[in-house]
Automatic annotation (TrEMBL):
Start and end residues of each Glycoside hydrolase family 2 immunoglobulin-like beta-sandwich domain: 257-287
InterPro entries (UniProt xref): Beta-gal/glucu_dom_sf (IPR036156), Galactose-bd-like_sf (IPR008979), GH (IPR017853), GH2_Domain-Containing (IPR051913), Glyco_hydro_2 (IPR006101), Glyco_hydro_2_AS (IPR023232), Glyco_hydro_2_cat (IPR006103), Glyco_hydro_2_N (IPR006104)
Keyword Cell cycle assigned: no
Family: Belongs to the glycosyl hydrolase 2 family.
UniProt GO MF annotations: hydrolase activity, hydrolyzing O-glycosyl compounds
UniProt record, GO biological process: carbohydrate metabolic process
Domain Glycosyl hydrolases family 2 sugar binding: start-end pairs: 38-201
Domain Glycoside hydrolase family 2 catalytic: 292-580
Hydrolase keyword on record: yes
Keywords: Glycosidase, Hydrolase
Organism the protein comes from: Roseibium suaedae
Pfam families the record matches: Glyco_hydro_2, Glyco_hydro_2_C, Glyco_hydro_2_N
Protein name: Beta-glucuronidase
Length: 588
């Protein structure tokens, strides 16, 4: 038997050499304001349910004229079907709708010769969930985590002339992943955010973190390469200073008082950093978020979060988002009267926080530590911690982001507590300036908020579905009375399904009328609880999910205030809008 046929027969460990987690937060480079070469567009594509590609090493077969081919490989990466990048394969063909497994993406990359000392990096905005990168047959690395960006240095691998870039993307849900097998959102697959190539000098800026610190501003810079100083400029504040780099890192403390960023006045400053000829540029806002007792303060002013939760989901594009889609989302949130969005349940596209910075919205960002993941597994913990680091390093210059959330409705076991405490430590080490939260638990026997994790976070997120999963509204009143939290509580979810179509019932569960009633009752009860510092009901738009298949759901979670067409508003929209208008009047 030919070599490749033998490889197909053995099942053990065919993927072990490629299952490193070597593309991670430490290999990220900072890309704001950099010009890259986009690699979006058509890529050759093939789904590979049996992982034949890894067994036969499809990536090692470089293009050959047909008559020169000596082995009958089962796929030719250089011919055949193409798909656009970014995209989710489920949205492209009906036969791929429920496909879970590996898929191969291949494209040519034509590169100019690189001048001495120059470097190149490939950045993939997101690939769901596991992505192996090959260039010209060489394996460069693997990334886990479906919603954060990753980079790989390709200085050596990319040759002058034509190169072949291949990605093997696998979206199989497994017990050890984050999230694991069971979620309440759709398991899309593919390279669904932008891919680009960046060229830098021998020093590359890997990280920049600008924020208020004490009475002034602090800017941290992290580089890789020989440069020994970095130059930091905030022209509008008259700042143009050099900072010495030790081990590639430097910090500048500036005794300046910038105009503060807030939803009412989202002031942003241009920030540039240069080191060894490398340069980045970002727009940053400065603001202070704090909690004292059960209160929240933004720039010293009491804060109530008028929020809405939102998934990254689109009826036709799946998890693939666009500028237009993101701007519509914020326009709808503005109409609703929001100053806050919960970007559930995983890191959304990075443009979301950039637009929120510009428009003046506060954000809760989170990682998919969702329900019962494998808390006792060290590999799962490494994966979760890495996703958190990647999210924070990507978005920590966004003034809009005030909360990092480390989990959602996780069972209160010892293993979970240990795992989640680890996440809070990672978050505080990466970014001591923001508040931490998680959707915590209620003890339904005692009818009170009770979760050991609460002691380790700043804001207790509470998902409660009185009027929907829980029938007795009186119990919500009792929870309100019995809980005596020592820190702010945000109702991170509440809501009810409402089918707005001709299939929807007139009355009762799944009717839009019932959904409206639930909102009315929730608002009536919650607005009486003194420690509630905000709400982000579930959810702005209906979203696709495999598990919901009754006659009203038909493959969608229909708790949206707006239908999945992102146009049709349900009556509950106005109820929440009315509450937020009253809240705004109270503040004024
Ligand atoms: C929850 C989950 C959310 C679900 C929602 C629901 O508690 O956090 O992901 O989609 O309930 O609709 O059941």
């Amino acid at each position: 038997l030919a070599d490749n046929a033998l490889q197909c027969l053995h099942d053990e460990d065919y993927d072990r050499p490629y299952n490193l987690q070597n593309l991670n937060a430490d290999t990220l480079i900072f890309t704001s304001g950099r010009d890259g070469v986009s690699l979006d567009g058509d890529w050759n594509f093939c789904v590979d349910l049996l992982d034949t590609g890894l067994r036969q090493k499809w990536f090692s077969m470089l293009p050959q004229a047909h008559e020169d081919k000596t082995e009958p490989w089962d796929y030719d990466p250089y011919e055949g079907e193409t798909v656009p990048v970014p995209s989710c394969w489920q949205m492209l063909k009906e036969k791929w709708y429920f496909f879970e497994g590996s898929a191969w993406y291949t494209r040519a990359v034509d590169a100019e010769p690189l001048a001495a000392g120059r470097r190149r990096f490939l950045r993939i905005g997101a690939a769901q969930y596991d992505c192996k990168v090959f260039i010209n047959g060489q394996f460069l690395g693997n990334h886990y985590g479906g919603s954060t960006p990753f980079c790989v240095e390709v200085t050596e691998a990319l040759q002058p002339g034509r190169n072949w870039l291949m990605l093997c993307v696998n979206n199989t849900r497994t017990l050890d992943r984050v999230p694991m097998r069971n979620t309440d959102w759709f398991n899309y697959g593919g390279v669904y955010r932008e891919v680009a190539l960046y060229e830098t000098p021998s020093t590359v800026i890997k990280g920049v973190f600008a924020r208020l610190d004490g009475e002034g501003i602090a800017v941290d810079v992290e580089t890789d390469g020989p440069a020994s100083v970095a130059r930091i400029r905030l022209p509008e504040l008259g700042i143009d200073q050099e900072v010495v780099l030790a081990g590639g890192k430097g910090r500048l403390d500036l005794a300046v008082r910038p105009e503060l960023w807030s939803p009412e006045s989202p002031k942003l400053y241009k920030l540039t950093v240069e080191a060894g000829g490398d340069a980045i540029c970002d727009k940053v806002g400065f603001r202070r978020i704090e909690r004292r007792g059960t209160d929240l303060f933004l720039n010293g002013e009491p804060l109530f979060l008028r929020g809405i939760s939102v998934h990254e989901d689109d009826e036709t594009k799946g998890k693939c988002t666009s500028e237009e889609d993101l701007r519509r989302r914020f326009a709808d949130a503005r109409d609703l009267g929001c100053n806050f969005l919960r970007l559930a349940h995983y890191p959304h596209h990075e443009r979301a926080a950039e637009i929120a910075d510009e428009l003046g919205f506060l954000l809760w960002e989170e990682i998919p530590v969702y329900w019962a993941i494998d808390f006792a597994n060290p590999a799962t913990r490494r994966d979760a911690e890495n996703q958190l680091r990647e999210l924070i390093r990507r978005d920590r210059n966004r003034a809009s982001v005030i909360i990092w959330s480390v989990g959602n409705e996780n069972p209160d076991t010892d293993a979970r507590l240990e795992f989640m405490r680890g996440l809070t430590e990672v978050a505080r080490a990466e970014d001591p300036t923001r508040l931490l939260s998680a959707a915590c638990l209620v003890n339904h026997a005692k009818l009170k908020i009770e979760d050991r994790l609460a002691a380790h976070i700043d804001i207790i997120g509470l998902n409660e579905y009185y009027g929907w999963y829980e029938e007795e509204f009186e119990e919500l009143v009792a929870i309100g009375r019995n809980s005596n939290p020592d820190r702010p509580v945000v109702i991170s979810e509440t809501g009810a399904d409402g089918d707005h179509t001709q299939h929807g019932p007139e009355k009762g569960l799944f009717s839009i009328d019932y959904q409206r009633e639930v909102y009315e009752k929730q608002i009536e009860i919650l607005s009486r609880l003194s420690y509630i510092r905000g709400i982000s009901p579930w959810i702005l738009y209906d979203f696709r999910v495999e598990r919901r298949q009754n006659v009203f759901q038909r493959g969608f979670n229909r708790k949206g205030l707006i239908a999945a067409d992102k146009r049709t508003r349900k009556p509950a929209f106005e109820v929440l809008q009315g509450f937020y208008e009253a809240q705004k009047r109270e503040v004024e």
